[in-house]
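pinned: reference chain
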Amino acid sequence: MLLGLFLVALGIIGAFLPLMPTTIFLILAAGCFARSSPRLEAWLLDHPRHGPALRAWRAEGAISRRGKQAACLGMTAGYGIFCLTARPAFPLAAVVAAALLGSAAWIIRRPLPSASLPRDPD
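pinned: its structure tokens
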């Protein structure tokens, strides 16, 4: 349960810090709470803002269109900031770009939530 609470705290921080994710920490927290605190798990899954995305991921491994766009935009911005601030040598920049492109491809290929699940208002 402590790990779940820590992950919720990271998710809350991610809601306010640019380029830090929120949903992945909440997905991991829900998994921790499923094993330790059904009450906190239900609280996360019933959350009006994040609950639909968590339920879609749990049921279908689905990501909303807006979630996919935000993830890809965040990776693009993060890569731009990385290149501008770290000024990496080409081999490192290429490896990071390849990792981010692979991650973006995986995210884009995830299904959209089906009509049988309550839709994320985003």
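why pinned: The two ends are 29 Å apart (CA to CA). Residues 65-86 form the longest helix (22 residues).
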